[in-house]
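Box 3.1 A note on notation
Throughout this textbook, protein chains are presented in two layers. The first layer is the amino acid sequence; the second is a token string describing backbone geometry. Keep the layers aligned when reading.
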Amino acid sequence: MVRVLFLHPDLGIGGAERLVVDAALALKNQGHVVSFLTNHHDESHCFEETRDGTIAVETVGDWIPRSIFGKFNAFCAYVRMIYAAFYTVLVVAQNEKLDVIFCDQISLGIPVLRLAKHDPRILFYCHFPDQLQTKPGGMLKRIYRAPLDYLEEKTTGQADRILVNSKFTRRVFKTTFKRLSMDPDVLYPSLNTKFFDNPPPDDEVSSKIPARSFLFLSINRYERKKNLSLAIETFRDIMTSVSAAEFDRMHLILAGGFDLRVMENVQHYQELTILAKDLNLLDKITFLKSPKDSTKLWLLNNVHVLLYTPENEHFGIVPLEGMYMNKPVIAVNSGGPMETIVHENTGYLCQPTTEDFKKPMIKLFRDPKLIESMGQMGRKRVEQKFSFEAFTASLNQIIEEMLQEPK
């Protein structure tokens, strides 16, 4: 039995959070003791397993601001995580023996974790280099980012082992952190398929969607980099490419992670609703904010086609969810989806243009048998390549190898 502490900045409902929650569940299923230490955990905005007691969660440092006058988000995030690292060393590790600390997303706490009693192994999961997730800026921003970028690389290299979520991310890791000789292991995210195998309960969202519609679904946070406007603009182009009777049957659902504390979520949600209104599509689109797990399950059971619009997505767990639920996935031909979706077999990989997205959307709308066959192939691919059992075995092996390596 191994004691593993997961150190995560914000236990919300994003893809990164889904991965680490699944990692904790996988290790717990192997008989290990797991828990989370996080800077923020909102029980109205989290996965069920972190709310119902399946996995213990402790929150520290949430009183530290997330930004300073709307700026310095990265700096504040780093300070919050360093505080959590000191709490781990001075409190958690003093009261119990930690074997492994699974540090997620932010690496700056790793040097502090090195001070922990009993010398636990440090496993760092790099979803994507943080310095690449910030928007380019002027001279002042470059000056502000320079020490943070240096520290990110320096502290990442102090982990005992590094995991990434795809071959795409591993290539980016190597080209970004050129001074590091470490070769990260690829641990593909997986699905806790037991949740998806449960029949979905009736959901109140069904009353918001026109009955007997052909449903296109997008599941992504309300962030500009997710390119959700592509789905809306493509829907507008479809309106001019099919008959009025055909378009009358179609409906688009945008279900996105939404947090009032995140200004971009608020602003971008407004931008998208304004766009839909300007294109006369408000009655053809349903916007959902942070749908519950049960709502998400209902959606994945009842829609016909899944749309995935981000470019250069690090991995993307949503296409796996769609394929497992027998839905063809139309995604941008870059990043993680290139490793999960088989073009013209389980879905379509497209350029991020309305013209390229429109063609397979119309084709699938007009061919129910193609939807069925693609859905079956998608389900089979997830079961063979991305099963929870394979994910559990790989992660457990990595943990055991770390503990056997000489200190």
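The first strand starts at residue 3 and ends at 8. The first helix runs from residue 15 to 29.
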